[in-house]
Design brief:
The protein has helices at about 1-10, 15-30, 35-60, 85-90, 95, 110-125, 135-145, 150-160, 175-190, 205-210, 210-225, and strands at about 100-105, 130-135, 160-165, 195-200, 225-230. With about 240 residues, the protein is α/β, with parallel strands linked by helices. It has a five-stranded parallel sheet with strand order 2-3-4-1-5. The longest helix has 28 residues, at about 35-60. The termini are far apart. The relative contact order is 0.14.
């Protein structure tokens, strides 16, 4: 009978139950548990197993470059970041409200770390997301023009609950790249949340994207529902001086 149960569980792809069946049945016999109790425990194990696998898949698909979290951010070292403001964002209400977050600051001030931390927290809480370096994202979108897969790629990226666009700075862009990037921002406008990190004030975006009307439209969409955090503080990458 145990073999038949095992075969059925395998055919139904109940991986969590398969790994625990023998131990759960053995425990049930020793403790005199009812059929209902055994069934509930097995289903709880399967439920937890599937949730864990889904989380693992979301984390893998998001392509996070580092496993940073809110808990590990050095707020004491970076006084320019208000911990209360970040912890408010960590409630993830900005995602449910379809709002954006933009971190502006010099290199090394913690922008990427905060963005990754919020993205990771969202993934843990069941949201689908993806991390992109700005230049890589634009290059990927531009390359899709060659095989006419742009529409499909835009739809995929636009459907993520949250994406991080990291290091939006002085990029070398063609008019086609600029237009397709704006298309993505437009598709996500007040439908999904986007986190952007940049070392440029908004006034410098005109030098990057060149087309004033397009930049005006892009900033209008990004800033309409947005939390803007300017980090005017020291670089966290500066070597610490050792006192003798």
């Amino acid at each position: 009978m145990l073999q038949k149960l095992g075969d059925l569980i395998e055919q139904l792809h109940l991986r969590g139950i398969a790994d625990s069946l023998k131990s759960v049945l053995t425990e049930a016999r020793h403790q005199g548990q009812s059929i209902e109790e055994v069934l509930q425990k097995l289903l709880e194990i399967e439920y937890q197993y599937r949730n864990t696998r889904r989380l693992e898949n979301r984390l893998k698909a998001a392509k996070l470059p580092w496993e940073w979290s809110i808990d590990t951010f050095p707020f004491k070292t970076q006084p320019a970041v208000k911990k209360s403001q970040i912890m408010s964002l960590a409630k993830l209400e900005f995602i449910t409200h379809l709002e954006n977050v933009i971190f502006i600051g010099k290199p090394g001030t913690g922008k990427t770390g905060l963005a990754i931390s919020l993205l990771r927290l969202a993934l843990v809480n069941g949201y689908r997301g993806r991390f992109y370096k700005a230049q890589d994202l634009i290059n990927e979108l531009y390359a899709s023009l060659a095989d006419r897969s742009t529409s499909s790629l835009l739809k995929t990226i636009a459907n993520y609950d949250i994406i991080v666009i990291d290091e939006l700075g002085y990029l070398t862009l063609t008019s086609e790249q600029i237009n397709i990037f704006f298309k993505l921002i437009d598709m996500r406008y007040h439908k999904k949340s986007t986190i952007i990190t940049t070392n440029l004030d908004f006034s410098a975006w005109y030098d990057v994207f060149k087309q004033k009307e397009l930049v005006d439209a892009m900033l209008d969409r990004l800033n309409h529902y947005c939390t803007i955090i300017k980090i005017d503080g020291p670089s966290l990458r500066e070597p610490k001086q050792i006192k003798n």
